[in-house]
Design a protein that fits this description.
- This protein is α+β, with helices and mostly antiparallel strands.
- It contains 1 helix and 6 strands, in the order ββββαββ.
- It has one helix at residues 34-46, and strands spanning 7-8, 11-12, 14-16, 24-26, 55-56, 62-64.
- A hairpin with a 7-residue loop joins strand 3 and strand 4.
- It is globular.
- The termini are far apart.
Length: 65
């Protein structure tokens, strides 16, 4: 199965698999819960985080874009 990478507001979203900022991988669309995608989209639109800043979502995972 060919998984599509998740784009939010035109930006690639990555998740840190290590939990320590050392293993960033692109997020597959199937692996990003809609609520997290919406939260990240809100952060992008509001400008609350700069690109590539470490953002900890409500699921405890670290994301960047």
């Amino acid at each position: 199965m060919n998984e599509t990478n998740e784009l939010v507001c035109g930006s690639q979203v990555q998740v840190d698999k290590s939990g320590a900022g050392q293993c960033w991988v692109d997020v597959a669309a199937a692996d990003l819960p809609p609520s997290i995608s919406q939260t990240i989209e809100g952060e992008m639109i509001d400008g609350g985080h700069d690109e590539c800043d470490d953002f900890v979502a409500s699921n405890g995972l670290h994301y960047r874009w």
